[in-house]
Amino acid sequence: MANPTHGVLFDVGYTLLDETDRLRHAIATLAEDLGPLGLPGLPAVAAMSAEARVDHVMGCYLAGCESPNPAEPSLLVQTLAALGLPEEEARRVRKRLRWDAVPMTPFPGVRDCLVALREAGMRVGVLANQPASAREDLDRAGLVELCDSIWLSDAVGMAKPDPAFFRLALSMWSMPPERVAYVGDRPDNDVAPAKLLGMHTVRMRLGPHAMQQPRGAGEVADWTVDTFAGLTEHLLRWAGR
Questions:
Q1: What CA–CA distance (Å, rounded) separates 106 from 83?
Q2: Is pTM, for the whole model, over 0.85?
Q3: Tell me, what's the pLDDT at 41?
Q4: Which sign does the torsion angle of CA 74, 77, 81, 86 carry?
Q5: CA 28/CA 33 separation, integer angstroms
């Protein structure tokens, strides 16, 4: 691609790829682990049926998605703590969980969106808090071939919302922040750090963070959308302007 003037960086979970099945598997695994453990804060949880326990744990997870704890980067640890596990035990349980046991699948319209951006002469990349295995999910979806760069937190040793992670991509692309858009689903992890650097921010309202409210102007995206047709139209208009 010769001298692109604009670029777009995408988050992965609930942006390019649907993590719903992965999340359900993780929650079911945690609920199963919690049965024999019991919980100091909720002693009745061990007596719940397996189905009721899964629903209960999922409810706590979704509540955390609406109001994430800025002091705890892992929503699963936050969920376990809300259920009554001491912090260290919550971290041990989370560490045992294989988050990427179930593959992610692309949302409808994702590939068409990336193709349209590339055909318009834009650089396309991924910057996400994901295990290195997320590249395999992107490859199965046929998206790796459409990306100029892929930065995954476990592979590069950086993670959102650290602005340094975003600066890495801007530096590698040699593009000013105002010419690079970041597309993600979370006001805190995605919108805030990208906006702080002067990037154009787009929030995808997909998945459990759709109800998360911005905690201030710094977490309000420049644009909000819930379909890839609408996202494509907006990004092409933004780059053209």
A1: 31
A2: yes
A3: 46
A4: negative
A5: 9
